[in-house]
Amino acid sequence: MIRLFQLAEENAREHPERARRYVELARKIGQRYNVRIPKEWKYRFCKKCNSFWIPGETVIIRLKPDPQPHLEYICKVCGARRRKVYEPRKESEPTADR
Ligand SMILES: [Zn+2]
Fold first, then answer.
1. 72 CA to middle of ligand 1, Å?
2. Sign (positive/negative) of CA torsion 64, 70, 76, 77?
3. pLDDT digits over 17-61, tens only?
4. Where are the domains of the chain?
5. Which residue from 58, 10, 8, 65 is spatially nearest to 37, judged by alpha carbons?
6. How far, in Å, is the centroid of ligand 1 from the Cα of 13?
7. What is the C-alpha to C-alpha distance for residues 71 and 43, in angstroms, rounded to an integer?
8. pTM for the whole thing?
9. Are 98 and 66 spatial neighbours (Cβ–Cβ below 8 Å)?
C-alpha cells in the first residue's frame, strides 16, 4: 500500500491520472483489509477526487489561526478542503491525529 503511494508520488507530476489511480487503489486496499493509511500519506491526496497532492501545484496549503491553529488544504483539482490541526514540531510523532 505504501508502495502505491510512492508510485503515486513518482507519477504525480507527469502523469496525474496515473497517480490518481494509484491513490484510488491504495485506498481500496486499505478499505478491504481494514488497514489505516499511514499518517505521512494521509494528507498527501484528495479524499474527494483521489488526486495526489503536490504542495503548491495540486494543493494549496494555508495556515489558519482560527478557531485553533490548523492547516487548510485546498485541492486545486476539485476544490475540496481539508483541515489538519497544526502541531508544531510534532509531525513525526505517532500521536492522535483526529
Ligand atoms: Zn480533489
1. 13
2. negative
3. 999 999 999 999 999 999 999 999 999 999 999 999 999 999 999
4. 2-85
5. 8
6. 15
7. 10
8. 0.82
9. no
Confidence of residue 67 (pLDDT cuts 50, 70, 90): confident
Q: Give the cell for residue 90.
A: 510534532
Q: Are 14 and 29 in contact (CB under 8 A)?
A: no
CA distance 70 to 88: 10
- 38 CB-near residues (< 8 Å, 6+ apart): 2, 5
CA of 81 to the centre of ligand 1 (A): 8
Beta bridge partners of 60: 74
Ligand 1 geometric centre to CA of 61 (Å): 13
